[in-house]
Amino acid sequence: MHGAFRNVIDFYERLFEIDPLSELACQRLVTLHSNKGMHNAAIKIYKTFRKISRQELDSEFEDLTQSIQERLLQS
Prior knowledge:
There is one protein chain. The chain contains 4 helices and no strands. It is mostly helical and about 80 residues long. The chain has one domain: Tetratricopeptide repeat domain (Serine Threonine Protein Phosphatase 5, Tetratricopeptide repeat). Helix 2 (about 25-35) packs antiparallel against helix 3. It is globular, with a radius of gyration of 12 Å. It starts with a helix and ends with a helix. The mean pLDDT is about 85.
């Protein structure tokens, strides 16, 4: 399972690297890291996405991304 988990993380990290405005990649990475107890990594990814999306798009997030962020902060 550890290898499969690492492959999934690697996939979404690569996607996020290629397209830092990919809300899907942000959502998946934050959720995966959070589920593994890696809250600092999840928060860092979320903050990076938030900063880039505000600079580039001057926009807010989908409800799902906001809900993931709220759950992360509660844990």
